[in-house]
Amino acid sequence: MATQAFVETRQLVGKLEYRNMSDLLLDFRRYIEKDAGAPVQRVETNAALVLHDLCRFLKLGEQQREKVLGKSAAAFVDGVLDERVTLPTS
Fold this sequence. Notes:
Strand content: 5-15%
Radius of gyration: 16 Å
Shape: globular
Low-confidence stretches: 1-9
Largest sheet: 2 strands, antiparallel
């Protein structure tokens, strides 16, 4: 009974409505591939970064993202995102 209620629940992400999780995850895979510029099987990342991307994809707020990731992983992700690569100028 609870499973059927979940299946019938529609998920609203941004302006897109999802009737099932497989369609939502399909769009998330496409989001990852577009962001990485490569097929999903060639994308190398860690689980904290994947969860961060999922939170971003689902348009969760900062508090929700930190709840999903936990403080340690959120700090790790923030450090990765803040890292700047500078190339020497010639």
